[in-house]
Protein: glycerate 2-kinase
Amino acid sequence: MSEASEHARMIAVTLILEGISAADPVKAVKNFLKLDGDTLVLGDWTRIPLKGKVIVVGSGKASGGMALAVEEMLGNRITGGVVSIPEELVEKYSGSLSRVKVVGATHPRASQKSVEAGQRIVESVRGLSGEDVVIALFSGGGSALAELPVEGVGIDEIGELSIKLMKAGANIVELNTVRKHLSRLKGGWLAKHAYPATLVALMISDVVGDRMDIIASGPTVPDPTTYHDAVNIVKKYGLWEEVPQSIKKILEDGIAGKIPETPKPGDPVFEKVHNRIIASNIISLNAMASKAREMGYNTVILTSMLEGEAREAGKILAAIAKEVLKTGNPVPPPAVILAGGETTVTVRGRGTGGRNQELALSAAIALKGEQRIAIASAGSDGRDGPTDVAGAVVDGYTYEKAQKLGLSPEAYLENNDSYSFFQKAGGHIKTGYTGTNVNDLVVIVVEKENPWE
Ligand SMILES: Nc1ncnc2c1ncn2[C@@H]1O[C@H](COP(=O)(O)OP(=O)(O)OP(=O)(O)O)[C@@H](O)[C@H]1O
Ligand SMILES: O=C(O)[C@H](O)CO
Ligand SMILES: [Mg+2]
Structure:
């Protein structure tokens, strides 16, 4: 292994950790919200006087951390509220939160616990006055962790349809379009319940492209989608015949105008709503880019919307790294090229792995024999697929090293066994569960000849 590759690996992992740290829920809230006397000041200088009640609600995997930061800032100004987080995290936060209640619910499939959480959230914001302020905290997993089904539909029916749509390959925009139309919490309904209070909704985005109405199914965001869209999505995946009668009736009544649509853009209830994204893939990439520039690297952010098959993305990113080294395009070494998003893996083999490890393994094959390059890819939640690592880092020597150990990188890739590959060849990035999620982060580092100079 050359010193330059070794250095490149170290920089790549350092930058991944920087990106994760920028998405830390406590930090993200504290960076964005300030208290100036009796006024809440948002990151864009919007000022919100705290004259009446202050209610904190929310749901999502990062919402415990977000609530903690709000409570540390506002303390006993908070008059009540509840956040719903994964059951396994309740113990971590319930001890440190005293004004905001923490309840546990289930994900990725909603359950009766999610309904109890949804009811409590809605009850907390009902009957408020125009002087009151609601702070809503949403993050990934929020859709499953809280729900208030529309009357006549059971949570198990919603849970089952959601899982069927996911398995059929529906994306998060499609899935949440359906969820919104079976809910009295999602799709802007929470804003309607909270009106006429002022509503500040802070979101950590796990949605590629950051559509606010899709994050946790947009409880505080005007819904541009319709009952028609929901029906078309269910039909697109061939599931209409399997939909229970109760759900069919709601969707059909919705189309016929017999029951109300979700609150739409232009609805006056949104006049008192401030929706803001406080952590996202691009916010993390920007933090990583600043750090890389500080360390003297020529830095480019390629995209925060990387999608597609992980092994193809790995090949393309390796090609970009080789171009930097060979011709100095788009920037000359020492260079850091950043990307983020969420790739997918069509699992055909029987191995263990995740999309980040698979991307890295594919890049390692394409980088065979290259010097001075490293590529790291990791999930910001610290869990790459069903494994206990965040991702992996590779360089131009990974291939040779594996061969010396008698491993065939191609065979491991073929078997979707990237986790086992890196267990043997080295290169896992282990962060533990990070308590946030802004999707995946990818770093390419290309060193000049002697990076230690
Ligand atoms: N052997 C494997 N190799 C590569 N990828 C795999 C393998 N097994 C599963 N995966 C991928 O892991 C993904 C599931 O990972 P994970 O549970 O982290 O989901 P997620 O989309 O990140 O959800 P969340 O946002 O809740 O974390 C699936 O998209 C699947 O393609
Ligand atoms: O909960 C959800 O809807 C997804 O994680 C997207 O935010
Ligand atoms: Mg994940």
